[in-house]
Design brief:
Elements lengths: L1 E6 L7 H10 L8 E4 L17 H20 L7 E12 L5 E11 L6 E5 L23 E4 L2 E7 L13 H11 L6 E6 L7 H16 L3 E5 L1 E4 L2 E4 L3 E4 L2 E5 L6 E6 L41 H21 L4 E5 L4 H16 L5 E6 L7 H14 L3 E3 L3 H15 L5 H23 L2 E4 L3 H6 L12 E2 L6 H14 L6 H5 L19 H12 L5 H6 L4 H13 L1 H5 L26
Parallel strand pairs: 1-2, 2-3, 7-8, 8-9, 15-16, 15-18, 16-17, 18-19
Antiparallel strand pairs: 1-14, 3-4, 4-5, 6-7, 9-12, 10-11, 12-13
Helix pairs in contact: 1-2, 5-6, 6-11, 13-15
Length: 585
């Protein structure tokens, strides 16, 4: 039997494009066999409150009817063909309001009505997931009989076990097969599984465990997309025994076609282990820290490439789906804004669509000449025009007006923040003028401790580096220079980081050095360690308490921050929700 894994890339609710792709399945010349599509292929994912909106429901039901009419009109071919697609199944009350919504697998066969044959059982409700808010769970296993083969069905979370769930659909499927005296020929999992570092290896590990437990090859089909801050990386695969038989592209749409392999049992640990891979909120307690000193582990080369690919997909999808082709970057000559500009350049060279990039340097009284020189050199390296728009005179005018009206001198933090807010105002004036998108350049370290000015350098439509600590920003910059012919001037990487908002300012005057700050933040944000534990482990008490205080007191800034492209298991943004008002140190 031929298996076809369709790793698709569609915008949420783009029923026209989804229908076009679906119907093309019968005209590709490779239409025979079993075709697998991702979870909620018919709608996109995540849907959130969209599933409750009347207009969306009406459009979706009309689309579903079109799919049924199309399916019924198809002639049966000599070679069997079936499509398994993820979608929604609604039940309504007497006045037409949604009574129940299920996340299901639809079976599409030529000449027949489409029908839901399996309902997702495990509804994740941790981190960025909130499926219990919208969906009703299924409770029964399902085995499809097609082309004399028995195919076990799962949807995303169903393949994972966790103490958060009251049963394991994989064990249930195994029991069902034994009870019905069925030999399983294939297990399929339709997924919409978000990316974070290490997730792909976890999927492979779990798939191998299931394959050997059920004693059947395992096919995993994942979607590709960036939905605001969430990245879906694709990398669909099929495993058998101890081997990955075929693997789809990462961060790109793809189709895998192969003959169904005959199961061969693994002789290694997968033959005996079944519950070693978990996928729950408990998984978020893992950290990127060494076990002894709790130092932040450096990024590997392949991880740097994964991050780069994820960020490019995140920026490009966000801009395309929001019909934006121009970008404005507030370039300071520092590491963060330089890295964002470099990533944009790499993205521009990779994408088929035309995009325009603009860099704006906005020097103030405390900006060094080196900052301009390095900004200029970077722009020369990547072929981007640099525009200089000084804020000195506006800053002086505001200070004078403040003095005149309040009979007081603007100084200290107020004077520093007004410079940042002026830059934010001007870059958005430019954005409004030319219809460009401003990308935020803050890193995770700054966001964590509130080392950014609200309505100032925290502005932007999308945060590119908000899930990378400052030390990881440097690592990614070094990797990019290695891969792209020293794109970023070396002095940008080696100079001491500074906001340049006062005379001789450096970040270390306000914060611990990043090599000490970042491990503390990683430990606290993983929820695995307390401040007391970190002090016990040898971290400086005054630094730990200061960082903990800054972290907990900065929620109000993060609550108003833009979407952050997620590349880690635990990230600020949609998956991180903490009360603003609470008792703190």
């Amino acid at each position: 039997m031929q298996i076809n894994l369709h790793q698709t890339h569609h915008e949420i609710g783009d029923f026209e494009a989804i229908f076009k792709y679906l119907t093309s399945t019968f005209s590709t010349g490779k239409q025979n066999g079993l075709h697998l599509f991702p979870e909620l292929f018919l709608t996109g994912y995540p849907l959130q409150d969209l599933v409750l909106q009347k207009s969306f429901i009406e459009e979706y039901l009309a689309f579903l009817n079109d799919v049924t009419l199309w399916s019924e009109k198809q002639f049966k071919s000599a070679a069997p063909i079936a499509l398994l697609v993820g979608g929604l199944a609604y039940q309504f009350d007497s006045v037409g309001l949604p009574l129940q919504i299920e996340n299901v697998i639809y079976l599409i066969e030529p000449g027949k009505k489409i029908k839901a044959i399996y309902t997702k059982q495990l509804l994740p409700n941790y981190d960025l997931y909130e499926e219990k808010k919208y969906f009703s769970p299924g409770h029964l296993p399902s085995v499809l009989e097609f082309d004399n083969k028995k195919i076990g069905l799962l949807i995303c979370e169903d393949m994972w076990f966790s103490h958060l769930h009251d049963h394991d659909p994989v064990e249930q499927l195994k029991d069902h097969l034994i009870e019905k005296k069925l030999n399983c020929d294939l297990v399929v999992n339709l997924s919409a599984s978000p990316f974070h570092l290490g997730k792909h290896d976890q999927r492979i590990q779990r798939a191998l465990e299931i394959a050997n437990y059920i004693e059947a090859p395992f096919a995993y089909i994942n979607r590709v997309a960036a939905e605001d801050e969430i990245i879906f990386d694709g990398r669909s695969f099929i495993v058998n025994g101890s081997d990955v038989i075929k693997l789809a592209k990462a961060f790109n749409s793809d189709v895998l076609s192969l003959e169904l392999p005959i199961f061969t049992k693994s002789q290694n640990e997968f033959a005996t282990k079944f519950k070693t891979s978990s996928n729950s909120w408990a998984n978020l307690f893992t950290t990127r820290l060494s076990s002894d000193t709790l130092a932040l582990l450096p990024l590997k080369r392949n991880e740097c490439q994964e991050i780069l690919d994820a960020l490019i997909l995140g920026i490009s999808d966000y801009s395309v789906k929001n019909k934006i082709s121009k970008f404005s970057i507030a370039l300071s000559g520092g590491m963060d804004s330089s890295l964002v500009l470099a990533i944009l350049k790499i993205m521009k060279d990779k994408l088929p669509q035309k995009i325009e990039i603009e860099a704006v340097f906005m020097p103030g009284f405390f900006s060094s000449s080196q900052s301009y020189d390095l900004s200029y050199d970077l722009c020369q390296n990547i072929g981007v025009k640099l525009t200089t728009m000084p804020i000195k005179f506006i800053h002086s005018t505001i200070k004078g007006s403040y003095r005149e009206n309040f009979s007081n001198e603007m100084k200290g933090l107020a004077d520093e923040n007004i410079q940042s807010r002026l830059r934010g105002t001007l870059i958005y004036a430019r954005s409004n003028d030319i219809g460009s998108m401003v990308l935020n350049t803050s890193n995770k370290s700054e966001i964590a401790v509130g080392y950014s000015t609200i309505y100032g350098d925290s502005v932007g439509a999308l945060s590119v580096l908000g899930d990378l600590y400052k030390s990881e920003v440097y690592e990614l910059a070094l990797y990019i220079n290695e891969q792209y012919n020293d794109m970023i001037p070396e002095e940008i990487i080696t100079r001491a980081p500074s906001a340049e908002l006062r005379e001789n300012q450096e970040d270390t005057q306000s914060l611990p050095p990043y090599e000490r700050l970042d491990p503390i933040l990683e430990a606290l944000l993983s929820n695995r360690f307390s401040a007391a534990h970190l002090i016990q482990k040898g971290h400086k008490k005054e630094e730990v308490l200061k960082v903990f205080s800054l972290l907990t007191k900065s929620e109000y800034k993060r609550a108003q921050f833009c979407p952050i492209i997620k590349v880690k298991a635990k990230s600020f943004g949609f998956g991180y929700r903490v009360p603003i008002s609470k008792k703190t140190l």
